[in-house]
Amino acid sequence: MVYASEAVEVECVEPADVSLDDLDFMGNLHNGRYPMLVERALVRIWARAGYSFVDGVPTHPDVVHVVIEQTVRYRSPVRTVGRVNVAFRMERLGKSSMVYAFRVVSDDGGTVHAEGTRTEVNVDMSSLGSAPWAGETRETALRLFGPPAADTSRTAPASRPA
């Protein structure tokens, strides 16, 4: 078991619900549901900050982005329905990209179920190429998720054998 007290960074925490249909045949949260919990939590956080869609129209140009990479390390299975929390912090903030570090933790904060990173790139809808984040978006991201971590080696993907 991994305890949430291992993390010391400031995090933005969003609750997430695990439903019965999220569990696999062994009664564990299905591995494919963790990225969905992360996605839904980020959408709710950004929507509260004014970045969403209304009647299919983005409320801000920076709402349109793509996920180019996501890593998940499974630590301790979620074995019940109910609430968990998804905790985020800013890992890197580039000109047109953001890398979040995230942890899925138990409702009481005592157990880390999964952790990883998610990289998003802002998209210019006219060219479909990458576009710089607006200054307001950068400020909002830093306010919500804190400054980028000084040491990014903690969340770097593990090297693979040759």
Overall mean pLDDT score? 89
Give the termini separation.
30 Å
The SS-based structural class is alpha+beta
Largest sheet: spatial strand order = 1-5-6-7-4
What characterizes the major β-sheet? Answer: 5 strands, antiparallel
Shape: globular
Strand content of the residues, in percent?
Answer: 25-35%
Low-confidence stretches: 1-8, 151-162
Helix percentage: 10-25%
Q: What letter string, H or E per element, gives the SSE order?
A: EHEEEEEEH
Gyration radius over CA: 16 Å
Counting DSSP H or I runs of 4 or more residues, the number of helices is: 2
How many strands? 7
Supply database-style keywords.
33% strand; 162 residues; two-stranded antiparallel ribbon; alpha+beta; disordered N terminus; disordered C terminus; five-stranded antiparallel beta sheet
